[in-house]
Automatic annotation (TrEMBL):
Gene3D superfamilies: Glutaredoxin. Coiled coil: none annotated. CDD domains: SCO. It holds the Pfam family SCO1-SenC. This is SCO family protein. Belongs to the SCO1/2 family.
Length: 187
């Protein structure tokens, strides 16, 4: 008669679970392939891959913008409001700074508070100018630095699936809220 103690049973179960687990590979067409380090509004370092597992709406903005960026953020907030409670559990919102030298984590946090962004659902990121340029190129966001720390840029919102693949892009204007919300529910 074989006696099993709890430790032995735990080891066997753990080994079986390990054998049954498949290693997760990031799809080749995922922006999560980018391994750049970002700082969020809390000063925490993370990679884009940390957003794996949820759909994400992503836009590149800068906090002191007085033109396009407030419209983009308002549009994303309206999309969030348009989602059902169940849908909100599966969608995150990411804002990446186009002016990383001035949009520090502290500035991003103040911006989030002033815009009443729920930081359980929203992430504001800053990185190096090179990392911002790389992400912009991957998302096909065009931008050009102007005088006085201003930026001329595309006003696109990019929808990612739960594995970081681009599913669609929409212009970040309020008239696209319903269309964007509907499209989010197709994948």
């Amino acid at each position: 008669m074989i006696k099993f103690n709890i430790l032995t049973v735990s080891k066997i179960i753990g080994f079986m679970l390990l054998l049954s687990m498949k290693s997760y590979a990031v799809p080749q067409d995922s922006i999560y392939q980018l391994k750049n380090n970002w700082l969020n509004q809390d000063g925490k370092t993370l990679t884009l891959g940390s957003f794996n597992g949820k759909k994400q709406l992503v836009s590149l903005i800068y906090t002191h913008c007085l033109h396009t960026c407030p419209t983009i953020v308002s549009t994303m907030q309206a999309i969030e409001s348009n989602l059902t409670e169940d849908e909100k559990q599966n969608v995150g919102f990411i804002l990446v700074s186009l002016t990383p030298t001035t949009d520090t984590p502290e500035v991003l946090r103040e911006f989030a508070q002033s815009r009443k962004l729920n930081l359980d659902k929203w992430s504001l990121l800053t990185g190096t100018p090179e990392d911002v340029r790389t992400l912009a190129m991957v998302l096909n966001i065009k931008f050009q630095d102007m005088d006085d720390n201003e930026v001329n840029h595309s006003n696109l919102i990019t929808a990612l699936d739960d594995e970081g693949r681009i599913r669609f892009q929409e212009i970040g204007v309020l008239s696209n809220v319903a269309k964007t919300t509907d499209k989010l529910n197709t994948f």
